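User: Show me an example of a complex going from sequences to structure tokens.

Assistant: Sure. Here are the input components:
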Amino acid sequence: MPTATHTGQRIGLVLFPRLTQLDLTAPYEVFARVPGATVELVGAARGPVQSEFGLTLHATAARDEIDALDVVCVPGGPGIGALLADGAWLDWLARIGGSASWVTSVCTGALVLGAAGLLDGYRATTHWLSLDLLPLCGAIPTAGRVVRDRNRITGGGVTAGLDFALTLAGLFVGDRAAQQIQLLVEYQPEPPYPVGLEHYASEVAALRAERAALQAERARLVVAARQRR
Amino acid sequence: MPTATHTGQRIGLVLFPRLTQLDLTAPYEVFARVPGATVELVGAARGPVQSEFGLTLHATAARDEIDALDVVCVPGGPGIGALLADGAWLDWLARIGGSASWVTSVCTGALVLGAAGLLDGYRATTHWLSLDLLPLCGAIPTAGRVVRDRNRITGGGVTAGLDFALTLAGLFVGDRAAQQIQLLVEYQPEPPYPVGLEHYASEVAALRAERAALQAERARLVVAARQRR
């Protein structure tokens, strides 16, 4: 079992085409500042990977080079569709996740964890547009910016990766060191618009309608992935 | 003069070695979602650039390929030291900034704008550790997450890039479209620790002491850059 404070964490952020880059780069900024931690961007192969809107990131390790991680973290984005249908990724996640101290995700990365069988019976969160898909993953959907259930820690959509990573940093190195990271990345947010879905009922309804086909396809992929396992 | 709402913005984010990658990747995530906008990562040359902790980003355009931008944005990080001493970068910024609709920065990128002579007489902000250097740039230091003075918009440290970019998005495409971006990146932050320097007096003092030599060197570089112009 993970202990409350320890260093030397080996953290692997899963990198795949068409991910939402901020799902990865926001936690990276925090994890890279955790004393003693090493952070790998784990791709199907080493090398460049293009994110959702074109920004290119570099996988620093190939999946097959990684036998174990203290923390595995799956970001989300449109590219999860391909991951949900990719047996090699799901097998790797199931194996690495089975021995990792912390099994984590940001945004719709939770659906990938769930497709790999890693969220069965766990409370979890994801991007608000996908929360209703979590039961298909065997997870208990739980609204929240950061949801922890035993050694599963899932973050909400995109920018929740900051709250998620600072929470995890606190578990690794204690509150004092994590507070210093929060201070250095000047995380004292002031969103320019009101916060909370309740302020945007018509936008929320429009986005749900616009995404209905995509979400139905994700549901199908999650169910198919779990049937194959 | 910039108008209140318009699309087709060409946005250039300056990319340089040892930048703080989240200073760039957080605004990128917002700007890439602005309808009609194109976002370039502008480097000294096209190709890979390594950020502060090793994450590699790719310059999509070389500085010399860019004659004009609607928005120029300089992120910060340890790598600004080299920029402050780099006449080619400062000349380019002075030229592009002279015709851009919006001249902007995140974090200590403000010191680079100032070294290029772009903040003289403007209110501006930067990372809290560097706010006291702004007068050396001819700027009027102004505490704030996002500070706008005419067509200069500067953001505070690192994560302030989110508030900064959403504010700018609202100016480009109006509040409704910017609110939709805020909703899609689920920006309803819940920092795990109390927010505000006042909660961390001893940490703040320790960080200021630890960074004193670095800050003195930055001051020297800013003054030298402005004397050369």
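The lines above are the inputs; the final block is the predicted structure for all two components together. The longest helix of chain A spans residues 160-184.
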